[in-house]
Design goal:
Blueprint lengths: L1 E4 L3 E8 L3 E8 L8 H13 L8 E6 L5 H14 L4 E6 L2 H6 L5 E6 L3 E6 L5 E5 L11 H17 L5 H11 L4 H9 L4 H5 L3 H5 L5 H25 L5 E4 L1 H5 L1 H11 L3 E3 L4 H12 L3
Parallel strand pairs: 1-4, 4-5, 6-9, 9-10
Antiparallel strand pairs: 1-2, 2-3, 6-7, 7-8
Helix pairs in contact: 1-2, 4-6, 4-9, 5-6, 9-11
Length: about 280
């Protein structure tokens, strides 16, 4: 079984010989930033959707797993939910290269947050970014929404028109003016709620110079992560592009492709498939 436990969504895939795969999906469950009881509840419900199961091996790729406390908490939870199962917990970025069938390369993920991860053939690993939505994750969905809100408030304070970006963001947030927008944003306590508004920036990029600048800066931040990983590991690619934001916003994807200076491939299979493949490797040890 593979688990892909992200910031916005979590996915499970159970592989049964001759019986096909069983998939389930639920809300995100970042083990480093969400309350432990909430994580426990969400993952318990996710596994329950698969029915009665007793997998022999499971790899869980989890947002926040690079934090030792979060990793340990997740390991203990899975040991309780999956008794007598061989377990491996890795950062969710690790799943991307595995799902792409690569043992060496760089993964760039931009969804709710952002992170770059690199791995060499001899097993050296480097991660850049992925600090969480309150501190970093530049170029990710939450960051884009926050930058849009900051721009809108700067326009408001200057007495300038809010522009296409401002008008659209007010509608998306159900706010009558800029001040109510701020109140409505502060009432959104989960990162996925912020990231869902990032589409407004892309939708107004043709009509608002501020939106275009945010997209440009988002691409620059993502490229910075990749360049750091590349220089640290000496890996020349390929670069695997992944994450709901990067794969579903062509303007951002093309901005990254045009400037990153590496051969790029889109992740065609879901990251949870990478978790299944890594779980299979547990049986070979």
């Amino acid at each position: 079984m593979g688990l892909d436990i992200g910031g916005s969504a979590s996915r499970a895939r159970l592989r049964r010989d001759a019986h096909g795969d069983v998939d389930a999906e639920g809300p995100g469950a970042n083990v480093a930033t969400l309350d432990s009881e909430l994580v426990d509840d969400r993952l318990t419900q996710l596994l329950a959707k698969l029915g009665p199961i007793r997998p022999i091996a499971c790899c869980a790729g989890a947002a926040g797993a690079e934090v030792s406390v979060g990793r340990t908490r997740l390991e203990k939870l899975l040991e309780r939910l999956l008794p007598d199962c061989r377990l491996s917990v890795v950062h969710d970025a690790r799943l991307v290269l595995a799902a792409a069938g690569l043992h060496e390369g760089i993964a760039l993920i931009a969804g709710t947050g952002s992170v770059a991860y690199g791995r060499t053939l001899d097993g050296r690993e480097v991660q850049r970014g992925g600090w969480g939505w309150m501190i970093g994750d530049e170029g990710g969905g939450v960051w884009i929404t926050r930058e849009a809100a900051r721009l809108l408030m700067a326009r408001h304070d200057a007495g300038s028109p809010l522009g296409a970006l401002g008008d659209s963001l007010l509608v998306a947030c159900g706010a009558r003016d800029a001040l109510q927008l701020i109140a409505n944003l502060h009432a959104r306590h989960e990162p996925m709620e912020w990231a869902a508004l990032a589409s407004v920036v892309f939708d107004t990029a043709d009509s608002d110079a501020g939106s275009r600048d945010i997209v440009r800066r988002a691409a620059a931040e993502l490229i910075r992560l990749v360049v750091d990983v590349r220089h640290t590991l000496g890996v020349a690619g390929p670069l695997v592009l992944a994450g709901g934001l990067l794969l579903n916003q062509p303007r951002l994807e093309m901005a990254v492709r045009d400037s990153v200076g590496l051969p790029c491939v889109r992740l065609e299979l879901p990251p949870v498939e990478g978790a299944v493949r890594l779980a299979g490797e547990l049986l070979q040890r």
